[in-house]
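Form 7-S
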Amino acid sequence: MTGTGPRDFDPFSRSFVTNPYPLLATMRGEAAVHHVRQPNRMERYVVVRHAEGCAVLTDRLFSANPECGRQALQRAGYLKPGDNSGLTQASLLSTDPPAHTRLRRLLAASFGPDGMNRLAPIVERNVAELLEIFRVEAASKVDLVSQFAHPLTIRTLCEILGVEEDASAHFTRWISDVMTPRHRPNADTIRLAADQAIRGYLTTLIQAKTRDGAGDDLAAQLVTRWREDPSQVSEVELTNMLYELILAGYMTTAGLIVNGVLALLDNPSQLDLFRSVPAVRVAGVDELLRFDGPAFMFAAANRDERAFPGANRLDLTRHNSSAHLGFSHGIHLCWGAPIARVEARLAIGALLEQFRFIRLVGERADVEWRAVGNSRSPIALHVVMDG
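Output:
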């Protein structure tokens, strides 16, 4: 670790969000760990090398529980004194073993091969419906963010959760509001209202699944296991599991699709490979995550030459792409990762197969990026497509 005091570091500055890699490469060359201070006065340690990142994520010395850093979080305005609500207490994101092990065990059956086999037809149908619209409008400008990645991920999430179709528009708005940056006017009010709306809907959903009995959707499966053994999870924990899946599944998966398409457009030979060799796509999605995944907290480690020789080169045939940290690592490996992988593989594959010509509208340098939570992706990605 370098220096005697914290260095100024703004991960939400426009220049960093647009392209974080030059600064991260400089930091990675200086040291594995940096003590930094963000504009909101939050001080933290940033790990920028792959081996050290893996070590932190697997060492029990470190905790995911916000209680361990509550005072620092309160000073920075992330938590208010006495705030004991929501994801800060009972969730996979904010618990350590043995509570984390107990919660994760409840999910295991739903995210195995059988669960993913049920997911694929849902994704394929949703992708086909959206691409059919594009085929009619192919001569005009299409935004792959608002017209493809976002509606695809929210439709898919709502369907696998058993949420009514007409509620998907509400979830889109609620998720956007709950991720409102804290520096914006009335941010706390907007975030709180959206948080309460999501929790209220999920509470009603759990009650409905409890009343109606078994079903094939994920929410029904989890409710059934909860009813069979209430000691393994509380209703608050169950609500938070569904909440986490919606937040992470929506932003991360949509970002993976958009960032992945843009990375392929920047690398035509790799685009042709993804299009023409379906067998490459499973490992290829991991390489897209490594190269420029939406979870920018892991961007430095994923471009570490020590772990990935030629790390600044997109290579869909890279033998160790799956070692990326785009879904975290260790016990906190993202439990929605299988969903994101399936959606990205099928969505990007179908898009490239059905449209042989895809061109950015405007200059590449004009693509504007944003960071929402820990997810970084273009605000819009306007393209012209032709079969």
